[in-house]
Amino acid sequence: MNEIAAFTANTLNTHTYTNTGTTLLPNWLKRCAENTPRQVAVSTREVSWTFADLDQQASELAQQFATLGIQEGSRVGVLASNGLPFIACVHALMRLGAILVPLNVRLTLDEQLWLLQDVRAMALITDEHYTIRADEITHHSPALTRGTAVWDASSDRVRLQGVAMSPTAPLRAEIDLSAIQSIMYTSGTTGMPKGVMVTYGMQWWNALGSALNLGHQPEDCWLLCMPLFHIGGLSILIKNVIYGIRIAVYEKFDAQVINQALREQQVTIISVVTVMLQRMLAALDAEQGDGRYPTWLRCVLLGGGPAPRTLLEDCARRAVPVVQSYGLTESCSQAVTLSPRDALRKLGSAGRPLLPVQLRIMHEDVVAQPNQAGVICLKGPSITGGYDHRPEATASTIQDGWLATGDIGYVDEEGYLYVLDRRSDLIISGGENVYPAEIEAALLSHPEVIEAGVCGEADAQWGQVPIAFVHLQAGSALTMEALLEYVSTRLARFKQPRRIYLVAELPRNSSGKLLRRELNKLLPAASTQEPM
Amino acid sequence: MNEIAAFTANTLNTHTYTNTGTTLLPNWLKRCAENTPRQVAVSTREVSWTFADLDQQASELAQQFATLGIQEGSRVGVLASNGLPFIACVHALMRLGAILVPLNVRLTLDEQLWLLQDVRAMALITDEHYTIRADEITHHSPALTRGTAVWDASSDRVRLQGVAMSPTAPLRAEIDLSAIQSIMYTSGTTGMPKGVMVTYGMQWWNALGSALNLGHQPEDCWLLCMPLFHIGGLSILIKNVIYGIRIAVYEKFDAQVINQALREQQVTIISVVTVMLQRMLAALDAEQGDGRYPTWLRCVLLGGGPAPRTLLEDCARRAVPVVQSYGLTESCSQAVTLSPRDALRKLGSAGRPLLPVQLRIMHEDVVAQPNQAGVICLKGPSITGGYDHRPEATASTIQDGWLATGDIGYVDEEGYLYVLDRRSDLIISGGENVYPAEIEAALLSHPEVIEAGVCGEADAQWGQVPIAFVHLQAGSALTMEALLEYVSTRLARFKQPRRIYLVAELPRNSSGKLLRRELNKLLPAASTQEPM
Lengths: 532, 532
Prior knowledge:
The structure is a homodimer of 532-residue chains. With 532 residues, chain A is α/β, with parallel strands linked by helices. Among the domains of chain A are: 47-174, 3-Layer(aba) Sandwich (Rossmann fold); 427-526, 2-Layer Sandwich (GMP Synthetase, Chain A, domain 3). The first copy, chain A, is built from 14 helices and 29 strands. The radius of gyration of chain A is 24 Å and the shape is globular. At the A-B interface, strand 1, helix 1, helix 4, helix 6 and helix 7 of A face strand 1, helix 1, helix 4, helix 6 and helix 7 of B. Chains A, B: It comes from Dictyobacter arantiisoli. Chains A, B: Keywords: ATP-binding, Ligase, Menaquinone biosynthesis, Nucleotide-binding.
């Protein structure tokens, strides 16, 4: 038997192999409907749908979509509020292998038109709240196929109005993890929004990474009051069917309503941003109870930017199980999360990367030392592979698999992330990301504006609001009022500057780059005109 | 903006993309050591190791392995009892990207030699209990590199005796899910054992599928008293570091010890086979308590063949949270599991496939109807891609991604699997799979044996034991005693027939195929000689 050792590792090349190029899973919703058909999947104010209901809904709406010509790979804009039509659309598109492109409902007509064109959408689906906007959009883009998804109380189903079902539509029983589930638009330092490619695999890895960190209980109920057109909300719809748990979906955030829901719906997990949690606690105090939540609420997942320490301490006092997290569209929501067991010991930290995620801080192109601040970089299967049809943006953002977020932070000796600042120029207003470059571009599109700079200003209600500084053409008589009016059709309301200041020049570095962090210094005396 | 609709789905081929060919994750153990360094990872009778301990242990042992020449892709036999040396070896090999080949400690010298040769092992690592066997093995295979891993109480570390560490060994910080983690030998209907390729990805998908079904609680403790050389035991070592939970490892199964451990170690999950659970309940009754387990025991995961209904009903009476499951080496342990919420409603069923798994029953090459029996087939990323260097066996077992298990069962209208019989000829003795063809081959290797047939006989203690029927050469004076003695060096004790019957001929079908199911009919009168 001497020949045994003749086969050394070096003579074998079979130590890795790949079964197939892609990983196929059974469709998540379909599987839930088979496992637990009678369990409640989604509850809203109007209805409770079981997994069997949701599954049937997805198939039927998919058959209507097929009639519209929607098929594998089709890019479909969805403009709808948080409700049954949106939820049904998400699952129906998955059933066809079509790509969801959710539209931020707060965007202006111009912004939505630009986005639909940029993503090469072939159809636009709205709910009944956005039919007027849909009219406007299709007036400008008549070739866009249009559908209106409406919940019909009598059948308890969402239907596309006036569209027959295609019974022969090729519905997919499997999910290919490498396929794109959605394209989510987000801006960057460059100003123009870019479409982040979100694959099924990213959703899967994010959901599983979160479950390994927070624990998974088949009886969990996750409350969804974040917009479904952002990754933070959408990813809960997906966890719904990966975990097979119940979600309670709210159209809008109302602190009193949410506080009541936490009790009445036996909610165990809720995702919120700072401003929501602050309002919830204020509403809780107004109730004059004991200022606490029920014990079954096991996780308040807090995202959307660094939380004030006072808020975290208030939560600790009330035993609110707040779990800080850090994530972005490119990481399919949370990527770094403070485990509940570290909540008090590491107060103020965003925690440690979820299992699929690797984290490092880059300082001047070198991996930073512990406690040394730099750019937060992420890698792993829950991180996007890039931006849709923007190879340059992809190449400049992702190198060797590492995504440079642009956000600034450091890790301590134990590897816990502390986010110092979202991307240096990013303004977070009521949980929405506001990109100064995008506002500046809108201001600069006015022929009399020569320079424009935008930064955030602290605001008690929204966390931050954008303010702008402009330098006008010599002799211009443009009023700031008229300029605000001008940008109001070009920018969603939450992006419109609270005030615009007229200045003689903007702070720039030696190479002419705008120094947005210096803009605030212009405030006390520099304005030559009263702000609006 | 009319050009929007010009970009239809058909003109885009970017709706799927793959980031890279393989999925890389941070090393699971390393990640646990970073997340929760001070949390207990493994407790045995002797020690408790934190995740930091286990991580350091893995790195140090890997550096000793590197000195022996073990490297990426090396195939390394491990022959050790359930204990710290085995556990340390598993993680050290992962750190090097080397392939674990666990040896069943009950196999004979000949069987182990054959297996090491078949797998092209370059090294054999044993613990101190198997040094004599290691001497025998290396006597026959002198080129096999050998190491003895021993736990040293003073340093509280497992060390290879007399081997220095290679500080420059290339330790891997990442795990490639497509790489082979272990090769696990299992027999089939063909008689000779085959090496099942078990990838990191199979382990990952199995662990996550299980967590989604059973729930995952970061405070879980999983009791491991199954042999580590089988997939059922090994997969718990991997869940240990994927979940980041504590495991309590026992060298041997002793019902009283395990019952005590469930209380004292705050065990929440235990994996057992039927015979173990029966003994545990008997021991529980002997204690004259209330005949119940602590409430924190939330899952008794029961594998290793169909469980008797009386046992399941006994468990229901005692509120023992028994969860039936079905799996095999090729499916990286459990593939089908009865969710706790269905335990009573579907008593006797093995449940529904875990999330990554697809299940179907094939009856005469057609997918069976509900309630129609046939061969159980499995598909998904937790199912093996095949047998090591056995393309024919792989091709005949796996077709279009579907693994034909050979086991017989049916699914009901709700998709719940009922296992009627493990592979028709398979004998399960004390949780060990015993393959008649392998025993028959050993009997037939005796020059005076013309025909041999083996089947199982019910046994109160072991569930089943093998019995054999032989047809001898005319004029042979071979006694059954001598024949038993003959096979005892060729077959592990649990494979040795309890009795051998001398018969004039064996039941065969028209094409001469042995009908093992008919063998039992020979029992009452057919034996021409008293059994031994």
